[in-house]
From TrEMBL:
The keyword Lyase applies. It comes from Novosphingobium decolorationis. SUPFAM superfamilies: Mss4-like (SSF51316). Gene3D superfamilies: glutathione-dependent formaldehyde- activating enzyme (gfa) (3.90.1590.10). It comes from the Bacteria. PANTHER family: CENP-V_GFA DOMAIN-CONTAINING PROTEIN-RELATED, GFA DOMAIN-CONTAINING PROTEIN. Keywords: Lyase, Metal-binding, Zinc. This is GFA family protein. Belongs to the Gfa family. InterPro entries: CENP-V/GFA (IPR006913), Mss4-like_sf (IPR011057).
Length: 143
């Protein structure tokens, strides 16, 4: 499947449509993601917010990440499904949890990040690039 992508939370109170392909797809093993993802890594696509439609109420909760940025997780307040992540350094784009998409079959993981915080049993695909923490990158502006 390719764009447009459609998705929802578990209860259907929040639905979304995304017009474009992701800028990247990553697994994140940071501790906050492990708590959000029931002990595993989160699987995330960074998508442009232009052309992204979200219907329903999303609750946002922020925390200060190791980078010093306030990172926010967005979830359905009714069923608790994790749906989004956002970070002020990524203007014009936000993370969508791949589990929210009806079909993420063709979205291949480009990078695995925060491996230093993963449990010993975690498996990292050797064909995918790894970062022990947050990968360096240019100031992300996707307006
Ligand atoms: Zn829901
Ligand atoms: Zn994370």
């Amino acid at each position: 499947m390719s764009a447009p992508y459609h998705g929802s939370c578990n209860c259907g109170a929040v639905t979304l449509t995304i017009a474009s392909e992701p800028l990247w797809v990553r697994q994140c093993w940071c501790r906050q993601c492990q708590k959000a993802a029931a002990g595993n890594a989160t699987c995330n696509g960074l998508f442009r917010t232009e052309g992204m439609t979200v219907d329903g109420t999303v609750t946002w909760r922020g925390y200060t990440a190791a980078s010093g940025n306030t990172v926010e997780h967005g979830f359905c307040p009714t069923c608790g499904s994790q749906l989004f992540g956002r970070n002020p350094s990524r203007e014009g784009a936000q993370v969508v949890r791949l589990g929210a998409l009806d079909d993420a079959q063709n979205l291949k993981v480009n990078a695995i990040i925060w491996t230093s915080e993963a449990p010993d049993w975690a498996y990292f695909d050797p064909k995918v690039e790894h970062w022990s923490a947050q990968p360096p990158g240019p100031a992300a502006k996707f307006a």
